[in-house]
Design goal:
Length: about 300
């Protein structure tokens, strides 16, 4: 593959020409690579037209280059794959493009971003053994596992790597991006990305929610302190009486500040319970969980509390 990429760089071919290249256009004996020029692709009345032939040394173009371009090559896990599908996913609609092993477009369209509809379209236009490519994105984990669970061969592509090829397209549309992804799948010039399990994403979301609760409590307490300082009221340090009691004592004779401070104080009191629930969810099998007091009461770290997990 490295030798073939060196040949492409030396020839000065366009990205669109390289994506349209197939193993049939490599002549090892003559030492030539045949590219279809962009002008000919626009003006051709049918699929038969002339091509641009670039000579290269026979020692540069070898069997490894042909295997890299052949649909049944080692990078595709063996076996001839007749159809390649590209999915450009958005929240509502998914653009789908199907190309054959020669790079010719077979079908292009779109459907709702629903696994059942995507499966129906892919099986209807590309058959059972189609190889599907989708970029990394927010909805990729859910969509990949849903389609794999339905028996489809789905490969996740790094969006940054795919963008380097897709940005060379003349018209940047969702359907053209889907066709570009299908061509990348056909040529095999990609590095598959591992998709983490949904359990891993669920644990990550739980840790992110817990961090949000901690940050919200800290920001609320700091905002309460800032408002009180403006009117010469100082709640004091983190020791002694709990923070909420000290604030309530300062607001006893300040009816003008109570409507401003008390709603935030109520929110601060509710966050610790939500934080403790997140801790229990993050450690379902432990009998003792170290809990930190999230409300700005100034108590710091508490001792380990025995929590029954049922």
């Amino acid at each position: 593959m490295r030798a073939f990429c060196h040949t492409l760089g030396w020839s000065g071919c366009r990205i669109s020409e390289a994506l349209a290249l197939s193993g049939e256009r490599i002549d090892v004996a003559a030492g030539t690579v045949t590219f279809e020029t962009l002008e000919e692709a626009r003006a051709r009345p049918c699929c038969m037209c002339g091509h641009r032939v670039i000579a290269a040394g026979a020692q540069v173009i070898h069997d490894a280059a042909i295997r890299a371009l052949s649909p049944g090559g080692s990078h595709m896990g063996g076996g001839l794959m007749a159809w390649f599908v590209g999915l450009d996913v958005s929240q509502k609609l998914t653009a789908i493009c199907v190309v054959d092993e020669t790079g010719r477009r077979h079908w292009r369209g779109q459907c709702a971003t629903v696994p059942e509809q995507i499966e129906r379209v892919v099986r209807g236009h590309a058959g059972e053994d189609a190889r599907i490519g989708v970029e990394t994105g927010p909805m990729t984990p859910w969509l990949v596992y849903e389609l794999r669970g339905r028996g489809l061969d789905v490969v996740c592509l790094d969006a940054r790597h795919a963008s380097a090829a897709l940005k060379m397209l003349m018209n940047k549309t969702d359907q053209n991006d889907a066709e570009g992804l299908a061509q990348i799948m056909r040529t095999g010039w990609y590095r598959p990305v591992h998709v983490k399990s949904l359990d891993a994403h669920r644990a990550r979301a739980l840790l992110g929610a817990r961090a949000q609760l901690v940050g919200m409590t800290t920001r609320l307490s700091n905002h309460i302190r800032g408002v009180l300082k403006t009117f010469g009221l100082l709640p004091g340090g983190m020791r002694g009486l709990p923070f909420d009691r000290r604030v309530e004592a300062l607001l006893a004779d300040r009816d003008d500040l109570a409507p401003v401070i008390r709603p935030m104080l109520v929110a601060c009191r509710h966050h610790p319970a939500q934080r403790r629930q997140a801790d229990i969810s993050a450690h379902p099998d432990t009998r003792a969980v170290r809990q930190r007091d999230l409300d700005p009461l100034g108590t710091g770290w508490r001792s380990c509390s025995q929590i029954s997990t049922g």
